[in-house]
Amino acid sequence: MHGNVSNNTDNCEVDPGFLNFLYAITYTILLVPGLIGNVLALWVFYAYIKETKRAVIFMINLAIADLAQVLSLPLRIFYYLHHTWPFGEFLCMLCFYLKYVNMYASIYFLVCISIRRFLFVMYPFRYSHCKRMFDVYISIAGWVVVCVSCLPFPLLRINSHNGTRGEVCFVDLPVKDIGVFYSVLMVTMAEIFGFITPLLVVVYCSWKTISSLQQPQPISNDLGEKKKALKMILTCSVVFLICFAPYHFSFPLHFLAKSNKIKDCSQKKAILTFHPVALCLASLNSCLDPVIYYFTTDEFRRRLSRQEMQDIELQTELYCDEGTRKKSFKG
């Protein structure tokens, strides 16, 4: 694959300056809100986990996945601003790997959140007493599957014959040629199991929840719970469409363009320009996920309310005053 890329004419390639600018600006914009949002989410969920079983374990894992990617953004920004990588090959591959782990872990846990809320509302008597450890086991299994499945992404970028090894990273890493058959197989598996199947599951949960709302509700509380569940599931669907649909649409096209299966220069350039934009949209989920928590989870908004924050500040002050008095007494 890499050997074919070197035969492309300069007119068909994307301006490297455009790519550096796009990635540097995008990651700079996402860094602060992504860091604050996900740290705040973990802090809230630490207390929230004691109050409910409604997908909070999956939300915690989603926040961890987002935070892992956000913590790698400063190194990415450095590279795209300075066009050099002085941090070693291992750290380069780790940051490169975390990008895809975050994306597919986010997809996995968004699906888990949608299914959990759907089952809790549609079958409350069957799933209301579901043990929290069951969600923990599902999360662990998900991390294992995602981490193993994402290994080909960095492994296909490791090239010991690269003359500039150690100086380039991320988008500038060479791609190993593994042949058309295995390349098509990898792209197909990523599309089917990494995006199409999860999207169908979320759409199904949305459709069934909407259908249930059109039926007579025996208890008034059921209607409110179903509306809350639908709001969260639909929000997960929106994140799918905004963040992950463009990337998985451009992913096979990008492979065809890079392997010179698409001969038309204008088409190739359009695809190679759209793919990095789609990749940036995929990174946007690290900022959108905390928005999901805030607008779809009552307890999350309550924890961040002014009264709640004032109570926390008061408790902190009392704790500090008590510590000061104890020191004075000992003195």
Automatic annotation (TrEMBL):
Signal peptide (UniProt feature, chain positions): none
GO annotation, biological process: phospholipase C-activating G protein-coupled receptor signaling pathway; positive regulation of Rho protein signal transduction
Record domain G-protein coupled receptors family 1 profile: where: 37-293
GO CC aspect terms: plasma membrane
Transmembrane stretches, start-end: 24-49, 56-81, 101-122, 134-155, 180-207, 228-250, 270-296
Membrane topology: Multi-pass membrane protein
Subcellular location, record wording: Cell membrane
InterPro entries: GPCR_Rhodpsn, GPCR_Rhodpsn_7TM, GPR174_7tmA
GO MF terms held by the record: G protein-coupled receptor activity
Organism superkingdom: Eukaryota
SUPFAM superfamilies with a match to the protein in the record: Family A G protein-coupled receptor-like (SSF81321)
Keyword entries, A-Z: Cell membrane, Disulfide bond, G-protein coupled receptor, Glycoprotein, Membrane, Receptor, Transducer, Transmembrane, Transmembrane helix
Subunit structure: Interacts with GNA13. Interacts with CCL21.
PANTHER family assigned to the protein according to its UniProt record, in alphabetical order: G-PROTEIN COUPLED RECEPTOR, G-PROTEIN COUPLED RECEPTOR 174-RELATED
UniProt-recorded name of the protein: Probable G-protein coupled receptor 174
Lineage: Eukaryota, Metazoa, Chordata, Craniata, Vertebrata
